[in-house]
Amino acid sequence: MIELKNIEKYYANKGVKNYVLRHVTTTIKQGEFVSIMGPSGAGKSTLLNILGMLEEPTYGTYEFLGEDVTSLNERKRIELYRNHIGFVFQAYHLIDEMTVYENIEAPLLYKKIGGSERKSRIADLLDRFNIVAKKDLFPNQLSGGQQQLVGIARALAAQPSIILADEPTGNLQSA
To answer: Are strands 16-28 and 85-88 parallel, antiparallel or unpaired?
Structure first.
C-alpha cells in the first residue's frame, strides 16, 4: 500500500540545510496499524504530511497503491488524497464558517457521494461519536475534545483506504 524509499526533507535557511527527515525507508501493507513515535521536533508530523500528500519530500520516492506519488502532478495527487486518505490533524483544521454537520459532510461532497448516502453516513458518525446534539454548532462553540471528535468523524466519513492521524487523542478524555 505504501512504500517509502530514502525519503528526506529539509528546509534551507541562509544556505544551510536543516534536515527534518533523513533516509526514511519503510513499507506499510494494507491492514497494518503503524505508530510513529519520537520526541518533539523529530519529524513525525512532517512524515505524516508527506504520507498524506500535503508536503513533498526533498528527496526519495513515495509509492501509494503502486503509484509513484513523487512523480505525479498536483491534480493527480489531490485525486489520490480525496479518494483514499482520511487525515486527522493535530490542530483539527475544521472550517470555522461551517457547522459540525457541514464539516463532516465536506469530504463526501468532494467525492460526489449522493444526498441520501451522505445523510446516512453523517447520521451514523454523529451517533457513533455522541455528537448528534452538536450537529448545528460551529467549531468555536465546541470544546477542544469535541472539535477533535468532529475531525476524526470527518476523516472517517469518506471511508478512506488509510487514516493518517497526528496526535488524534491529544484532547480527548481517556474513556
So the answer is: unpaired
> What CA–CA distance (Å, rounded) separates 28 from 48?
13
pLDDT digits (tens, 9 = 90+) for 82-121: 889 998 887 778 999 999 999 999 999 988 899 999 999 9
Of 46-50, 92-96, 155-159, the poorest mean pLDDT is in 92-96
Where do runs of H (alpha helix) occur along 85-114? Answer: 100-110
Q: Which three cell numbers stand for residue 137?
A: 454548532
What's the DSSP call for residue 146?
H
- 126: cell is 454523529
Q: Which three cell numbers stand for residue 1?
A: 500500500
**Mean predicted lDDT score pLDDT of the chain:** 91
Determine contact, residues 23/6, Cβ cutoff 8 Å: yes
- Gap between the Cα atoms of 108 and 98, Å rounded: 14
